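pinned: reference chain
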Amino acid sequence: MRIAPNRRWVIVPAAMMLIPLLPLKLPFAYYALLRLAVCGAAGFLAFDRWRRERNLAWALAGLAVIYNPVIPLHLGRQALWDPINIIGALLLLFAATR
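pinned: its structure tokens
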């Protein structure tokens, strides 16, 4: 699977989702930027995929809702966010290859 040249920007929010898996103390501003980047990328890809792949578009829309910066979803502990970050990064990369 290759990422199309016009979709390579998706690598940035996907990588940003994997950085919190490292044992680092990240500032609150990083998580705010992460929410903005992932919500924007997932929303754009969902809109782009709507006509061709509705199931993928719904999954991306769900990811955008989880990461929306306006009404944040607070799951608390990092252990709850880790699987969401991994699945979300893979979903973004998968959508960029289609």
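why pinned: The helical segments are 11-18, 28-49, 54-66, 78-97. Residues 5-97 form one domain.
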